[in-house]
Amino acid sequence: MLTTGQKATILAKAGDAVPAFPARSLPIQERHLFRGAEAPQEELDADAQQARAAERWCQQIEDMYVVHVAARAARSLREAQDALQLDRLRQANAHPAHRE
After folding, report:
1. What does the pLDDT profile of the chain (100 residues) look like in tens digits?
2. Which of 23, 52, 55, 96 is 20–30 Å from 80 (CA)?
3. How far apart are CA 6 and CA 1, in angstroms?
4. Alpha carbon distance 65, 71 (integer Å)
5. Tally of helices (H runs) and strands (E runs) in the chain
6. Where are the beta strands (DSSP E) in the chain?
7. Are the CB atoms for 10 and 71 separated by under 8 Å?
């Protein structure tokens, strides 16, 4: 199963406009990364805000990927139908004596 990041890469390579992963509103301060250090509320709020934005981003990428896969499948089906029709026309033109 593909990760959301892998799906975003596939979409970008296919030429779709992929939104950037949401940035954190405040830069991370190294002093709050140590065990036992309490982060100020604004840091916690920034983390929660980024987590919600990341969830929305993931859902947007998932939705875009579903549309991309469906379009690719539809294109493949059309190409297969076109190839079948072309093959039938070639076969019909190869045996003109059988027509009456």
Report:
1. 999 999 999 999 999 999 999 998 877 766 666 666 677 788 888 889 999 999 999 999 999 999 999 999 999 999 999 999 999 999 888 876 655 5
2. 96
3. 10
4. 10
5. 2, 0
6. none
7. no
